[in-house]
Amino acid sequence: MKNKLTLAVAALGILALSACGSGSPSGGAADSPGNDAGGALEKITVGVIPIVDTAPIFLGDAQGFFKDEGLALDIQTATGGSAIVPGVQSGSYDFAFSNLVSLMVANDKGLSMKVVANGVTTTGDTNKDFGAVVVNADSPIKSPKDLVGKKVSVNNLSNIGDITVSQVIKDDGGDPSTVDFVEVPFPDAPAALENGIVDAAWIVDPFLIQSMETGSRVVSYNFADFDPELDIASYFTSSAKVESEPELTAKFQRAMNKSLDYAQEHPDEVRDIVGTYTKIDEATRSKIVLPRYRVDFSKEAAQKLADATKEFGSISKPVDLEALLP
Predict the structure, then answer these.
(1) Calpha distance 242→88 (Å, rounded)
(2) Residue 217 pairs with which residues in a beta bridge?
(3) Are 264 and 123 in contact (CB under 8 A)?
């Protein structure tokens, strides 16, 4: 059972991730398109969500990886994924960032989207990841199967949160169809949990850290528990753009792959650059668990995610991973 829940709690402003305006805060090529000696950079617009997950593209921009490919980035930030796919479909974005379930849902509805680069991957550590299902310290819920019949918050319904949590509950011997998933924005989820509005909350960093510091307890690191090799989100565009502009797509892909490798190898720079496009303070950035950034996809984990997405009703037909992934 899934429904939306309207909360009368204040957003946690000091950690809000939606503070960025449009454009690229990284100070890279997007600030002055055509700033190479010959003025020949091709400006492209990329839609992202201003969260830790997207640090590699900001780092890559600052390091000049996109400029090296002749590209000037105009990084446009959105408060959530709801506008991302339509933005690509309409041509407002050349490329964009979204979780894989959103892309599976889009393609199921006939919007032909194509992944061109990986985005973010679980740590694979079932004891320490950047997203988790948490409960209050005194909650009787001890394991995923104890979530049966309970009210659990996720940031969006029929998406990667409730899909992975449902699978983890099933794997633990519970019936996920009895869980009442409710939609609560991440900034509001810690307060919803603490005030008893929900029995459990799926939260990602930095809100996970904030919640745990006020006494919540982890029931499941659902991404890692779902599959230790799960790739969660990616950079994508329309299939039509890939076909009509293969050279541009290849340039973006090469620069993005360099950016992912660089981010993985320089975690301190990841923490630093996150402070340039979010309101996450330095003390919190030093504590958050960073995801993995890698170039290669786990096709096995992606197939498992696709199967679960269909099983739990977010899509109507099997996912063609060959068409979706690079």
Answers:
(1) 12
(2) 135
(3) no
Beta strands in the chain (DSSP E): 2-4, 42-48, 71-77, 95-99, 113-121, 131-136, 151-154, 180-183, 200-204, 216-220, 231-238
List the beta bridge partners of residue 287: none
For residue 216, give the 3-state DSSP assignment.
Answer: strand
Beta carbons within 10 angstroms of residue 22's beta carbon: 12
288 SS3 class: coil
CA atoms within 13 A on the CB side of 228: 5
CB 159 within 8 A of CB 102: yes
Q: Token pair of 206, please?
A: 């930095």
The closest of 17, 9, 19, 50 to 207, measured between CA atoms, is: 17
Q: Please, what's the b/e burial string for 148-158 (b: 16 or more CB within 10 A of its CB; e: otherwise)?
A: bebbbbbbbeb
Task: Report the alpha-carbon distance of residue 90 to residue 111 in Å, rounded.
Answer: 11
Order of all β-strands in the sheet with 2-4: 2-4, 180-183, 151-154, 200-204, 131-136, 216-220
Q: Are the C-beta atoms of residues 52 and 22 closer than 8 Å to each other?
A: no
- pLDDT tens series, the chain, 326 aa: 555 444 433 333 323 333 333 333 433 433 433 444 456 999 999 999 999 999 999 999 999 999 999 999 999 988 666 679 999 999 999 999 999 999 999 999 999 999 999 999 999 999 999 999 999 999 999 999 999 999 999 998 999 999 999 999 999 999 999 999 999 999 999 999 999 999 999 999 999 999 999 999 999 999 999 999 999 999 999 999 999 999 999 999 999 999 999 999 999 999 999 999 999 999 999 999 999 999 999 999 999 999 999 999 999 999 999 999 99
The DSSP string of 111-147 is: --EEEEEEEEE----TTS-SEEEEEETT-S--SGGGG
Residues paired with residue 220 on neighbouring β-strands, in sequence order: 133
